[in-house]
Design a protein that fits this description.
This protein is α+β, with helices and mostly antiparallel strands. Helices cover 35% and strands 23% of the residues. The protein has helices at 37-47, 135-147, 154-157, 162-172, 177-185, 189-215, and strands spanning 14-18, 29-34, 52-56, 72-83, 89-104, 113-117. The longest helix has 27 residues, at 189-215. The radius of gyration is 18 Å and the shape is globular. The termini are far apart.
């Protein structure tokens, strides 16, 4: 987690890493295995500057030649990296702030860059997670784990910080690209809690309906 981060620390341009299903949230972490030459070049570039990468999802169901992106992504800062013997990078991103694409810039060494609009999401820099009540969300999470035979001690999860819980659920649950995007675009923290709660409830109920159909 990046602490004491302010608006003045935000870069004016960032490279983006379009990857379906890979989302990072403010105050959350995301490990990545970088092996494509263009993204290796991207990592080498940011390691010598601000270390920020914009994680963003490509639009689903588009022609393979199209390169459309969803309008909102989240920037992460590289907090650790290892270069492997076969020239890959193993990195860990610390989620910092969401952004909208203001303008896409010219390619550099094959990777895409944008001018981000940080202004809609400056509240991401505030850590107000302690104000949230996650009891209903955790109850739905337990039902989801039980339905999918995932053995997790909910008491241990409740000891984790609220920000880590909210950032981890989209990564460990089998949500679809559009669902992860809905979580990412939720305006406020409470909105994100509500979206996560609804998705977990939906997945649990869908499973029950499928079971009933099988039994009949």
């Amino acid at each position: 987690m990046i602490k004491n981060f302010s608006k003045s620390d935000l870069p004016h341009t960032i490279p983006i890493f379009p990857l379906p299903g890979a989302v990072v949230f403010p105050f959350g972490n995301l490990p990545l295995n970088i092996f494509e030459p263009r993204y290796i070049a991207m990592i080498e570039s940011v390691l010598s500057t601000h270390r920020f990468i914009g994680m963003i999802q490509p639009v689903v169901h588009q022609n393979k030649n199209e390169k459309k992106l969803y309008p909102v992504g989240c920037a992460g800062k590289i907090i650790s990296f290892t270069e492997t013997s076969d020239s890959r990078f193993l990195i860990e991103l610390s989620g910092t702030l969401r952004f909208k694409i203001k303008k896409e810039l010219t390619l550099i060494k094959g990777f895409r860059r944008i001018e981000p609009d940080w202004s809609p999401f400056l509240n991401d820099l505030k850590n107000d997670y302690h104000l949230l009540n996650l009891s209903t969300l955790l109850m739905e999470l337990k039902k989801y784990f039980d339905k999918n035979s995932i053995n997790v001690d909910l008491n241990e999860i409740s000891k984790i910080s609220n920000e880590q819980i909210l950032a981890s659920i989209p990564q460990i649950c089998s949500f679809k690209v559009l669902e992860k995007q809905a979580i990412l675009e939720a305006t406020t923290l409470q909105d994100r809690v509500d979206v996560l709660t609804s998705l977990l409830r939906m997945y649990t109920l869908e499973g029950n309906e499928n079971d009933n159909e099988t039994i009949n």
